[in-house]
Design a protein that fits this description.
3-stranded antiparallel β-sheet; GMP Synthetase, Chain A, domain 3; alpha+beta; Ribosomal Protein S8, Chain: A, domain 1; single chain; 5 helices; 3-stranded mixed β-sheet
Length: 159
């Protein structure tokens, strides 16, 4: 059995893919890899004009680009790779996370104060985790996930 493809090898592959994608869209940008932790590497696309084209509505195009990047790594490594690869374009993920955290905190405080549970819109697993993490830090409220993928949502409930 071969050694798993390292995060560095994966990141090189994905950076080349992203460079090619940008060329295909005739977009000029900086693409680089940044280690997030021992098991995660994030490919960042910065200084891109027309960033909205690559992010898409509610980040759907960005998620598709990330899925394609992961499929490329899986195919080139025969599924034998270590760690996780993420893709961010123009800082979208961090801005989305910060906005979601602020929104959830506001809603959680409202739920705590008025005692009425509040369902949120359906969201992906990563966004649901943000909601659960933010609300867990606030006394007097908690969360539950409901529904079936891909339309699963979080309900913020008073304790």
């Amino acid at each position: 059995m071969e050694d798993p493809m390292s995060l560095q090898e994966q990141s090189t592959l994905v950076v080349e893919f992203l460079d090619g994608l940008l060329d295909a869209f005739d977009l000029d940008a900086d693409v680089y890899a940044e280690r997030v932790d021992d098991e995660t590497m994030e490919m960042r696309v910065e200084n891109v004009q027309g960033v909205g084209l690559l992010i898409g509505p509610k980040g759907n195009t960005l998620r598709a680009v990330e899925d394609l990047s992961r499929m490329l790594v899986q195919r080139k490594s025969d599924g034998n790779c270590e760690g996780r690869i993420r893709v961010d374009i123009g800082g979208y993920r961090e801005r989305r996370r910060a906005a979601l955290e602020a929104f959830c905190e506001k809603i959680a405080l409202e739920v705590r104060d008025n005692g009425a549970e509040r369902p949120l819109e359906p969201m992906n697993a990563a966004d649901r985790k943000v909601v659960h993490d933010v609300v867990a830090e606030i006394d007097g409220v908690s969360t539950v996930s409901e529904g079936q993928e891909p339309r699963r949502w979080v309900v913020i409930i008073p304790d």
